[in-house]
Design brief:
Ubiquitin-like (UB roll), about 30% helix, about 20% strand, PaaB, phenylacetyl-CoA 1,2-epoxidase activity, EC 1.14.13.149, PaaB_sf, 1,2-phenylacetyl-CoA epoxidase subunit PaaB
Length: about 110
């Protein structure tokens, strides 16, 4: 039986898939996982799960939150401001200044 092994490097980190082991039962799988995957790098915790019990849903089978563009969440997006947008901002600022002068705010 094949068992998938997930390793956590430090407490609080995520468990990441690091490989698999072949073992007849859970106890042997845990022991093999410790020997093969737990001692190579710093390890805080190991998870061992039967391969048959792990399910997968990929992008072909389901939509994960749709296709909404959420680039606005990343500051790097604002480095590429469209020139027409910059013109609109300048026009808007000019209109605001003109309106302030008419009101006598300036």
């Amino acid at each position: 039986m094949i068992w998938e092994v997930f390793r956590q490097e430090e407490a609080g980190d995520r468990h990441t898939h690091c490989g698999n082991v072949h073992a007849p039962d859970r106890e042997m799988a845990l022991m093999f996982a410790q020997v093969q995957h737990g001692r190579r790098m710093q390890t805080n915790s190991l998870w061992v799960a039967p391969k048959d019990e792990i399910g997968e849903v990929d992008a072909d089978e389901a939509e994960f939150g749709g296709t909404t563009d959420k680039a606005y969440r990343w500051a790097i997006t604002y480095n590429n401001i469209d020139a027409s947008f910059a013109e609109e901002v300048a026009e808007s600022e000019a209109e605001q200044e003109e309106a302030a002068q008419k009101r006598g705010d300036v």
